[in-house]
Design goal:
Elements lengths: L2 H20 L7 E11 L7 E14 L4 E14 L2 E7 L2 E8 L1 E16 L5 E15 L2 E5 L6
Antiparallel strand pairs: 1-2, 2-3, 3-6, 4-5, 5-8, 6-7
Length: 148
């Protein structure tokens, strides 16, 4: 799927969510905000060393149970620093991978809030995120040149 098609699909999905949410009585929306911190700690077999990030949401409630949220965030993923060498009769091949990748997710969600008692509230969220990426991952490979 090409980038233009992905962008168009993401914009259309966000527009559908926002349109369906604004069909609710928009004069009664009660706004609040939420901040979420993200952390990813992969196993030893993963290609990533870890990730951290934060996402902020502006939430608009039509009543005590239903609402919409608009969100934006930033994450930083670090590639596992890896250096390897392989040798055989022809010579040695060396490779390394290092760097990080920045992610900027933006999107919209539908929210359903359930008050389970006086002290507990559960919020279910279904939404769409479009993620802009800026990759700073570098991979290098070195091998000997053969001459006849």
């Amino acid at each position: 799927m090409n980038a233009t098609r992905v962008i168009a699909t993401g914009i259309a999905a966000i527009a559908m969510i926002c349109t369906s949410a604004t069909a609710v009585d928009s004069t009664n929306l009660k706004p609040d905000a939420a901040v979420r911190f993200n952390a990813f700690m992969p196993s030893q077999e993963e290609d990533w060393d870890g990730a951290t990030g934060v996402e902020a949401q502006a939430r608009f409630w039509s009543d005590s149970n239903f609402g919409i949220a608009l969100s934006a965030g930033i994450d930083s993923w670090r590639a596992r620093k890896e250096y390897s060498e392989q040798s055989d009769d022809a010579g040695t091949i060396a490779s390394s991978i290092y760097g990080n990748m920045t992610l900027l997710p933006v999107g919209a969600s539908l929210l359903i809030r359930n008050h389970a008692g006086n002290r507990l509230t559960v919020i279910l969220e279904a939404g769409v995120r479009y993620v802009f990426t800026d990759s700073g991952i570098n991979a290098e490979t070195g091998y000997p040149l053969y001459s006849s």
